[in-house]
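User: Quick sanity check before I run a bigger batch. Here is a single chain. Can you write out its predicted 3D structure?
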Amino acid sequence: MSDVKERIQTIIDEHEVVLFMKGTRMFPQCGFSARAVDIFKRCGVTFHGVNVLADGEIRQGIKDFSQWPTIPQAYVRGEFIGGSDIILEMYENGELQQLLGVDADKDDDHDAATPPKLVVTGPAREALAAALRDAGPDQLRFDVTSNWQYELYFGSPHARDFAIDCEGLTVHVPRASAARLDGATIDFIDGPDGKGFKIDNPNEPPSVKTMTPGELKRLLDAGESIHVFDVRGANEREIAKIEPSTLLDAAGREALAALDDDARIVLYCHHGVRSRSAAEQLLQEGYTKLFNLTGGIDAWSAEVDPSVPRY
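Assistant: Done. Predicted structure follows.
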């Protein structure tokens, strides 16, 4: 047995439930991994996650080991279960809970009885209908994890799905996600980064969103009501700054406190790391429309205003 196969076998032997995935349990880095994580969390079981993105040998080795071409892959007590679709199907028919030794009736979402109300706009219906013509036997499915990661994809039919008729377009929703998706709208827009689907969901809690330098520039040029705060230190601000913006020092904190909780606020730092942390903190303080400037002032200089010094 090769070294990588021995490593994989050891991991499987040492843990009752193992998920080979992209990313970590806290931060899945693909929708399918996020879905698998969410299902195990719904079942209330502890599992050992293996981030294949951090280990190239494992990433390819687990595909060879399982003779399964995609990630994620789940093992329970040494038995290979399958990928995301199979995990979901087993969860929805109760097989996964039985295998894990948990009570499916404790999962309130599992037996959701009421179909969600969905709105699919005209542009979205047109785009999805065109794609559906090439989907073969697969159905259009719409899902969301407990940490609000959305999946809109074509997949295998599931008997327990709710089939929602959206003006001639059928959207299949897993029962476990029905309550979280009630009232959601699927749109198809042509934005600054190209065409794509946009989902609005009134059930989603406030979160920190991202904003590109180009988006911020357009909002400022249009005179939109937006408040830009700099979370760096005064010494860095002396080198370079975005105008207009306010340093988030003691005086800046007073200016922030004077804003309504739903004011649109953009935070920036050098590369976007510190400002992300600051935005998450403000989210806990009750502000609801928070944006982190992608790439920070360095990206602003590179993409919008080259007169701003880079350092």
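The chain has a mean pLDDT of 91.

User: Great, the batch can go ahead then.
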